[in-house]
Write a structure and sequence with these properties.
The complex is a heterodimer of chains A (349) and B (516). Helices cover 69% and strands 5% of the residues of chain A. Chain A contains 15 helices and six strands. Chain A has a two-stranded antiparallel ribbon with strand order 1-2. In chain A, strands 3-6 form a two-stranded antiparallel ribbon. Chain B is of the alpha/beta class and 516 residues long. In chain B, strands 6-9-10-3-11-12 form a six-stranded mixed beta sheet, sandwiched between helices. In chain B, strands 18-19-20-15-21-22 form a six-stranded mixed beta sheet, sandwiched between helices. A four-stranded antiparallel beta sheet of chain B has the order 2-1-4-5, with helices on one face. In chain B, helix 4 crosses helix 5, helix 13 crosses helix 14 and helix 13 packs parallel to helix 15. The chains are: A mainly alpha (349), B alpha/beta (516). The structure holds adenosine-5'-triphosphate (ATP) and magnesium ion. The site of magnesium ion has 6 residues of chain B, from helix 1. The site of adenosine-5'-triphosphate has 22 residues of chain B, from strand 2, helix 1 and helix 15.
Chain lengths: 349, 516
């Protein structure tokens, strides 16, 4: 019981269950899944599919945040990736061929890698604060995307490209599969190697890590590059889903959703220990929230306020102060076992 | 003195953390105008008792934590250290909790700056800060950034801050752990003044000399339990140590002063490390230094003499701007700590909190960190090997709790220091630069660590040993390099040196380097 309460995943999971319940009450068919034409359909599938881009970006963001950084440029990178891919497809004589789409996707990803390297360079080599460093690309990036699309909304009609955002494999939406692959890859790559340990170490104490011989520059560059790469994949999914690249609106505000997902998942913005599983739950919470707004019939203009309220609630529940208070209540109710002092404590001023 | 009522009376204090009973029914009291020392091994519960008194840990919140605190006869229960401060309990915690990116003056006066016209009166703030620093005979620019000063100076600034408050009770948790004899003397002078004014002072230190010199009364804790309260004048040092560790400390006597041959006996021996005119502007004047294989070289000097600065240059943390460094006969430009480590030179920082441990990671991860960093992220050390390493160092250094999964932040100060040492021992460097390695470590463990250093040197590791504790330097080193005013002034073979003769050289610094 205590282990459950003190787990960082506890409150995000509770929040997700509460949102599910609200949806279930408003819409009894919420949990039902059906197979139509060999494809899986249902509200949960919609949540997973619509949440995939946010999750993909949030996975990259988790690693960036673990190093004490932040990447504000992911939305702009989404737009650039979409713009590059669409302009290549449109410029090709055969927009519907798999070859064209492959070239477009690879070009978009390569450009994202360059952008990620740029962010990493600013942060790791020039030592610019991450929020400023990535703000540069956040603002300049959309301008660049505009240049690529020449100010137009590029609508593409390419069946292979459409598959990325709206296709299915084995009945499961392709975007969900992509998100799962990225999530698993990030988890394996960081936890099966020492990457995770070194990232956390740099995030907790950069100077101690440097003295211990950790190559923090390389780590930071890797992490920002991965974040941009993930953002480009998300951008391709979004663009494919809309069958159009819109430099102004693709991935708009998605950095905020991604950061929220990370924070809800229990990774501290102060850097250090991170939880990809938490981020997964966080991304689901955010997407379910959006769905809830529709099922419950909250007017869309109130969406942002509603989102803010839920996020505030989760953050409050996770704060050490609230936890301590809760602990006190639980103990004064006499249910607490001896030795349940929470490990995190108010720090000495 | 004894007729007075205690100003602080703590009864039956118990505090638990998950899996650890840090305090178990402890009683403790303090009298006005008395210095009361709190003693015990690393992890005995000293800092926890202090935090229970100052409201960092609540004692009335549940069945596991209990007790009663009377301050001047009134029952108190502080919700946090700020409240304790307001009630007249001024505290310097073990880990200096100041802000490195603010100025010295701001740190001293933070939260109680003199005000004028609704704003902060900066001139008065500065003036007051200067007065307080002068009270400790600390001559530094109050406008300089705190983070730019050595740990010892930071410790003194923390003390100056605590003294400023009009306190009935002053708590000093290991205030002298990185101070030299001179600063300790200054601090004791101030303590005596406060004592004469009727302030009750709680003093924690692992230096028994200091404890005997300054305190009137002692309380000994062992494994979170009270062993007893004694008058300093009535307890022999031997008995005291025995009460602290629960058995007789045979090892201390066993560690006779090491009779060693200084390295470089044969003329053709190539030194492991040879620095020629190595210097850095504004940091240290050009230095010539040689360290031979299997040699322990002590580095001695006063506060601010440049010992740490030299160590940082040798280990690639700061870059030299003149001179050259030759390792094993090949010139080497240390660009980063990483490149130094690759050549087998490791540095264990004096500032374990800012530059040493990674607080939120486990003991295991902290121990393997440097080893893992060296192998690169793609070659993780197997789980089995990590466990073996962690368990063996936990045993060798007696780290408590003996749990590789414990988060280092939750360890007592001395145990954190042991974890840091373990990290450097695990990489098996050829030259280990130890900057105050026994800082905050208890008597028993200190002897163990000294023995370990000697053993390692016998097995071919060279050690550059920096310590404010001259006995320790004398006991371990075959040769002692002395620094003064940021230059190396002497390099002497340790054959018939005593603490006093060493002190004299440190103070005069006129002796020229001994020709070898
Ligand atoms: N926040 C915490 N969480 C878990 N355990 C803790 C925490 N703080 C202290 N402990 C444990 O409580 C015990 C007492 O620690 P404390 O810091 O009081 O020791 P100490 O006597 O001050 O030692 P030292 O001489 O090393 O400073 C130790 O076993 C420590 O691991
Ligand atoms: Mg302590």
């Amino acid at each position: 019981m205590n282990r459950m309460f003190s787990s960082r995943l506890f409150w995000p999971v509770v929040m997700l269950l509460v949102l599910f319940t609200i949806n279930l009450v408003a819409f009894p068919g919420f949990f039902s899944l059906e197979v139509k034409n060999g494809h899986l359909f249902g509200s949960l599938v919609d949540i997973a599919r619509n949440g995939a881009p946010t999750l993909i970006i949030a996975v990259g963001m988790t690693l960036v945040i673990a190093t004490r950084g932040i990447d504000l440029s992911v939305g702009a990178v989404c737009a650039i990736a979409g713009a590059v891919a669409c302009s290549i497809i449109l410029g090709s004589p055969e927009p519907g061929s798999i070859g064209t789409v492959a070239v477009a996707v690879i070009a978009a990803l390569l450009i994202a890698l360059v952008l990620g390297l740029w962010n990493g360079f600013l942060v790791a080599v020039l030592g610019i604060q991450p929020i400023i460093a990535t703000l540069i690309l956040m603002t300049a990036g959309r301008g660049a995307a505009m240049l690529i699309t020449e100010g137009q909304i590029l609508t593409v009609n390419s069946p292979p490209f459409k598959v990325i955002g709206s296709g299915f494999v084995l009945g499961i939406p392709v975007s969900v599969v992509i998100a799962a692959v990225i999530f698993a890859a990030a988890a394996l790559l960081t936890r099966r190697t020492a990457l995770g340990l070194l990232i956390e170490s740099v995030g907790i104490n950069p100077e101690a890590s440097r003295q211990a011989g950790v190559r923090s520059r390389g780590l930071l560059i890797t992490v920002y590059t991965f974040s941009a790469f993930a953002a480009a994949i998300a951008g391709l999914i979004l663009t494919s889903n809309q069958t159009a690249a819109d430099a102004n609106n693709t991935g708009l505000f998605i950095e905020l959703d991604a950061i929220l997902a990370v924070v809800i998942g229990g990774t501290s913005l102060a850097g250090g220990r991170y939880s990809l599983l938490g981020t997964l739950v966080g991304a689901l919470v955010i997407q379910t929230l959006v769905t809830t707004v529709y099922t419950v019939g909250i007017p869309p203009i109130a969406t942002m306020v509603f989102k803010a309220a839920v996020v505030t609630a989760v953050c409050l529940l996770q704060s050490p102060t609230t936890n301590a208070t809760f602990g006190r209540w639980r103990r004064s109710l006499g249910r607490g076992r001896p030795g349940t002092r929470t490990a995190e404590r108010a720090s000495v001023s | 003195m004894n007729a007075q009522a205690p100003v602080v009376e703590m009864t039956n204090i118990s505090i638990s953390f998950p899996g650890v009973k840090a305090l178990d029914g402890v009683n403790f009291r303090m009298f006005p105008g008395e210095v009361h020392s709190l003693l015990g091994e690393n992890g005995a519960g000293k800092s926890t008792l202090i935090k229970a008194l100052t409201g960092v840990y609540a004692i009335d919140s549940g069945p596991a934590d209990s007790g009663e605190i009377l301050l001047a006869g009134n029952r108190v229960s502080f919700a946090g250290p700020a409240q304790a401060q307001n009630a007249g309990i001024s505290t310097v915690y073990q880990e200096v909790n100041l802000l490195g990116n603010l100025s010295v003056a701001e740190n001293i006066m933070l939260g109680r700056e003199p005000r004028r016209f609704g704003g902060i009166d900066w001139r008065a703030t500065r003036r007051r800060a200067v007065e307080l620093l002068r009270g400790l005979h600390l001559d530094i620019d109050p406008g300089s950034l705190l983070g730019s000063h050595s740990l010892a100076v930071q410790q003194l600034v923390a003390i100056a801050r605590a003294i400023d408050v009009n306190a009935k009770v002053l708590i000093l948790d290991e205030p002298t752990s990185s101070l030299d004899a001179d600063e300790v003397a200054e601090l004791f002078r101030v303590i005596r003044e406060l004592k004469a004014e009727g302030v009750a002072i709680l003093f924690v230190s692992h230096f028994l000399d200091q404890v005997y010199e300054i305190s009137d009364r002692l309380t000994v804790l062992r494994n979170g339990k009270l062993v007893g309260e004694y008058r300093t004048a009535e307890i022999l040092r031997l008995d005291l140590v025995q009460k602290m560790i629960g058995k007789e400390l045979a090892i201390l006597d066993a560690l006779e002063r090491r009779i060693v041959e200084p390295g470089g006996g044969e003329d053709d021996e190539v030194p492991l490390l040879a620095a020629t005119a190595l210097g850095r502007k504004g940091s240290i004047a050009p230095v010539d230094l040689r360290v031979y294989t299997g040699e322990v070289v002590g580095l001695a000097g006063l506060l601010g003499s440049g010992r740490t600065e030299l160590a940082r240059i040798l280990s690639g943390i700061d870059r030299p701007d003149s001179g050259e460094l030759v390792i094993d006969g090949t010139p080497h430009r240390f660009r980063t700590p990483r490149s130094a480590l690759a050549r087998g030179v490791a540095y264990s920082s004096e500032n374990r909190r800012a530059e040493g441990i990674v607080e939120d990671l486990t003991v295991r991860d902290n121990i393997v960190l440097a080893l893992q960093a060296d192998r690169g992220w793609f070659h993780p050390i197997s789980r089995k090997r990590r466990d073996e390493l962690a368990v063996s160092y936990i045993q060798a250094l007696n780290i408590r709790p003996a749990n590789p999964d414990a988060i280092v932040r939750n360890l007592s100060g001395g145990n954190q220091q042991k974890v840091l040492l373990a990290r450097w021992l695990a990489v098996a460097p050829r030259l280990l630069i130890l900057d105050e390695p026994t800082r905050g470590i208890d008597v028993g463990a200190k002897a163990e660590i000294q023995k370990l250093v000697v053993n390692l040197a016998e097995n071919g590791m060279s050690v550059l040993f920096i310590s404010a504790e001259l006995e320790e330097v004398l006991r371990l080193s075959s040769r002692i390099a002395i620094m003064r005013d940021r230059r190396l002034v002497a390099d002497i073979v340790n054959d018939d040196l005593t603490v006093d003769s060493l002190l004299a050289i440190i103070a005069d610094g006129e002796l020229t380097a001994v020709e070898r």
